[in-house]
Design brief:
Radius of gyration: 36 Å
Largest sheet: 7 strands, mixed
Shape: extended
CATH class of the largest domain: Alpha Beta
CATH topology of the largest domain: Heat Shock Protein 90
Number of domains: 4
CATH superfamily of the largest domain: Histidine kinase-like ATPase, C-terminal domain
CATH architecture of the largest domain: 2-Layer Sandwich
Structural class: alpha+beta
Order of helices and strands: HHHEEHHEEEHHEHHEEHEEHHHEE
Number of strands: 12
Helix content: 40-55%
């Protein structure tokens, strides 16, 4: 039996004996008093028994934990953005700052660290630090509720620190999920860009080889092949231009535009630039703008957004249809914002594709996109520009009825409100 229970058992036995003696002597007051005392002892025994058992070999090592550092030291630890854990030699959590509680919401002092993060590589690293004094850095993932990537640095805190007189482990946990996602996006981007450039380049090289061979004396074949090569070279040029444009936008995405811009005026400029394409696509182009909204904008970039969306609507809207550009009705989800909607009457887009449309090189129909001169980067560029303007891109589509792309931008006011 645990040594910590013996004082309670001894006191209970004495109380029981005294109560029995008083009962024989018929002393009601003292019988009641001793009975209440016995109940208190029993309650204490139950509470003590419910606590986590401690191995007999560890009893000599248990010492009261010193109070948390107060004042500036505590405030500094609490405000640190890096999650911190202090773990005792017995594996119990001594302290966790505010940042670590965002990762481990069930964190409480006294819990065993392995019950908070059931990850073998992490548990082994902490045990190695506590038992063998090994400092280490480990990476691991957690699956629930969503997959996250973490990196933990584990070291020893010397005896005599503000957290106690025993050597303890200090753990720093950093969320690397965003870094992993960025790295994956970068590698995917390089792979996709290489593929997109390799295809037209291989086509051009193939036609050059043909022209140098049996087709060099065939004027008709030469003319046809040169047209195809021109088309492929133009596609490569568009792709390179879009890649450079996307890089510039990402580079300056953190710099928010501040120049006042009359939104309706900018919309009409974009529409006017695309009017000559009505005949090419056999598509009508109509506008319905209201009010006189003003936004803080990079004029050239916002023009790029509008031209891209309207051009896409004309390409994919379908022959004999009308593309409409209009002021979006007010929406409580976009308070203090003004919206411009570009709507087509095309085939529509399946709901399973909508959330991926702004990914680089994502296409619903790759062959159709390439045939129409698309690079797969247009909506990614739109999304980044809208983000830079603190705006939102809303996409809605119904199969067989068409799609609507709405750009929401924070509205500015002449009076400064």
């Amino acid at each position: 039996m645990s040594a910590r229970l013996w004082p309670y058992i001894l006191l209970g036995s004495i109380s029981g004996g005294v109560a029995t003696s008083l009962a024989v002597l018929r002393e009601p007051f003292w019988i009641i008093f001793i009975s209440v005392l016995a109940l208190i002892v029993v309650f204490a025994l139950v509470q003590e028994a419910m606590r986590d058992p401690v191995e007999e070999g560890d009893v000599g090592e248990i010492e009261p934990t010193k109070p948390m550092p107060t004042g500036f030291g505590r405030a500094m630890l609490e405000q640190m953005p890096i999650p911190l854990l202090v773990i005792s030699r017995r594996g119990r959590v001594v302290y966790g700052n505010r940042a670590v509680k965002e990762i481990l919401p069930n964190l409480k002092a006294g819990l065993h660290f392995a019950s908070l993060l059931r990850v073998p590589v992490f548990v082994d690293a902490v045990n190695a630090a506590l038992n063998e004094g090994e400092n280490s850095k480990v990476s691991f993932t957690t699956a629930l509720p969503h997959e996250r990537y973490y990196e933990a640095s584990i070291g020893l805190m010397p005896a005599g620190s503000d957290f106690g007189d025993k050597v303890q482990a200090i753990v720093q946990i950093e969320d690397r999920t965003q870094d992993q996602r960025v790295e994956k996006m970068r590698s995917d981007f390089v792979a996709n860009a290489s593929h997109e450039l390799r295809t037209p380049l291989a086509s051009i090289l193939g036609y050059i080889e043909t022209l140098q061979g049996h087709a060099k004396d065939d004027p008709a074949a030469r003319e046809e092949f040169l047209k195809i090569m021109d088309k492929q070279a133009t596609r490569m040029q568009r792709l390179v231009n879009d890649l450079m444009s996307l890089s510039r936008i990402e580079l300056n995405e953190h710099i928010k535009p501040c120049d006042p811009c009359a939104l309706n005026e900018l919309v009409l400029e974009a529409v006017s630039a695309l009017l000559p394409l009505q005949k090419k696509y056999d598509v009508g182009l109509e506008t319905a703008l209201t009010g006189d909204p003003e936004v803080a904008a990079d004029r050239d970039q916002l023009n790029q957004v509008l031209v891209n969306l309207i051009d896409n609507a004309m390409k994919y809207g379908g022959s004999g249809t009308v593309v409409k550009v209009f002021t979006a009705p007010a929406d409580l989800r976009y308070a203090n914002m003004v919206g411009i909607t570009v709507a087509d009457q095309g085939a529509g887009i399946g709901s399973e594709h909508l959330h991926r449309l702004t990914e680089r090189f994502y296409r619903v129909n790759a062959k159709q996109s390439r045939n129409k001169g698309g690079t797969g980067l247009g909506l990614a560029i739109v999304k980044h520009i809208v983000n830079r303007h603190n705006g939102e891109l809303q996409i809605e589509s119904t199969l067989g009825r068409g799609s609507e792309f709405t750009v929401w931008l924070p509205e500015t006011y002449a009076n400064g409100h």
